[in-house]
Design a protein that fits this description.
Strand order of the largest sheet: 1-11-12-13-16-10-9-4
Strand content: 15-25%
CATH topology of the largest domain: BirA Bifunctional Protein, domain 2
Number of helices: 12
Shape: elongated
Number of domains: 2
CATH superfamily of the largest domain: Bira Bifunctional Protein, Domain 2
């Protein structure tokens, strides 16, 4: 959500920032709509004040037996009582229309974000790890996985496409990955573990920016709640409508949850395997920071996600997303892309974003420093730490052996009861 004062104070700069994100906004029309709402507010306030003033004056006129003045005042009050509800309705309609327009606009990119149209314009920041060199042609995870416990056929029969059943040793590895990630974030990175609701109301999803624009990407229940597309929704809304002590920031939360996405815009993409599912597990990181802290917190959070990949021995790269590839609520985003030898390319495994005050304004989340009377909007950040299913894909492809078995990375073996290898049935 945007501060309307930014539009009012510098409409050209506001329009230029949105243009970097591919949004062609008629700023003059939007500014006129905002001016119209302010004019209606002023007229409404003046009308209410005059009604109260005239009502008092009626009694004074009657006390002075000035029947003419009393009658004129009574006629004025009657006219005001008829006009004020119309003004209230006009002001409400103008306000709702302006708010709806502002709510549909994406966050403004930070100055260091590169301009670009899509993923082809993203910028490589760093590349780490060693890509494995196989003495045999590496297979994709959906080819070698069924013998290890990936059951797509049963899932499709009961639920349709984009679902999977994990069995036996692969199910255990999936669980081990989630627990390993949580333990690192809690015990080494200082996050507080949260077990949040998976069903949320409209205002929660609006607060993080999925509503109203991306409703088709979500699943909705019969009672009007939404299945979370990511734990970002639940974790970020922990500070909704709160005034936080600035000295206690940053707050850092993490959660391992199922996530649910309709993948409405992904028809024909990644229809095979685990890359793009309707239901998947993910460890999420969320930070609530002051405006001064958020840039550093973004770097820290990205390093936290990278530490998981380092510990698992996976090759990856960090990409700075261009303006055309960032998410709706993001002002700056890093993607971590893991090397998948079966596909012979890097694929996104984590996206870490600084949303500045965009979500906080939608949630009314503020902070106050000691000695200050006023409050400020906090900055919110979120990132995958990591997507469990995609990490499972990376383990299967990078640690595969010629006989179809998969070596368990040393970091995961304590979570696997010492098991060091998945063997095909």
């Amino acid at each position: 959500m945007h501060d309307v004062r930014r539009l009012r104070d510098d409409p050209d700069q506001f329009a230029a920032a949105l243009a970097r994100r591919g949004v062609d906004l008629d700023v003059a029309a939007l500014a006129a709509a905002e001016e119209r709402r302010r004019a209606l507010q002023t007229e409404l306030q003046a009308g209410l004040a005059r009604r109260n003033e005239a009502s008092k004056a009626i009694g004074q006129a009657k006390a002075q037996k000035d029947d003419g003045a009393a009658a004129a005042l009574m006629a004025e009050v009657t006219a005001l009582k008829a006009r004020l509800p119309e003004l209230e309705a006009e002001e409400r309609t103008a306000g709702e229309a302006l708010d709806a327009t502002l709510a549909a606009l994406p966050n403004l990119p930070l100055p260091e974000v590169p301009d670009g149209a899509d993923e082809n314009d993203n910028v490589l920041v760093d590349k780490r790890g060693i890509q494995p060199d196989f003495p045999f042609p590496p297979r994709e995870h959906d080819d070698l996985g069924p013998a290890l416990g990936l059951d797509f056929e049963s899932a499709t029969a009961m639920s349709g496409a984009r679902f999977v059943v994990l069995k036996g040793q692969v199910a255990r590895l999936n669980r081990a990955l989630g627990q390993f990630m949580l333990d690192m974030h809690v015990h080494e990175h200082g996050y507080t573990e949260i077990a949040p609701p998976l069903l949320v109301r409209d205002e929660a999803v609006f607060g993080t920016g999925q509503l109203p624009k991306f409703a088709e990407d979500l699943f909705r229940t019969s009672d009007g709640r939404w299945l979370i597309p990511t734990a970002e929704v639940s974790l970020t809304n922990l500070v909704r409508d709160r005034i936080l002590d600035a000295s206690a920031l940053p707050l850092r939360f993490t959660a391992l949850t199922p996530c649910f996405r309709s993948e409405a815009g992904a028809a024909g993409k990644d229809t095979r395997g685990l890359i793009r599912q309707h239901q998947f597990d993910k460890v999420e990181m969320v930070a609530i920071a002051t405006p001064e802290q958020s840039a550093e917190e973004h770097e820290r959070m990205t390093a936290n996600a990278e530490a998981i990949l380092d510990r698992l021995g996976l090759a990856y790269r960090r990409m700075l997303l261009c303006t055309g590839d960032m998410g709706f609520a993001a002002a700056k985003t890093y993607d971590l892309e893991v090397w998948l030898p079966g596909q012979g390319r890097y694929r996104e495994i984590s996206s870490i974003s600084n949303c500045t005050d965009f979500q906080a304004r939608r949630m009314n989340a503020r902070c106050r420093s000691e000695g200050d009377k006023g409050t400020r909007l906090v900055h919110t950040l979120n990132g995958s730490g990591l997507a469990v299913g995609r990490t499972l894909v990376a383990i299967l492809e990078n640690y595969q052996q010629a006989d179809g078995s998969v070596t368990v990375p040393p970091a995961l073996r304590p979570y696997m009861g010492g098991l060091d290898r998945l063997t095909p049935a």
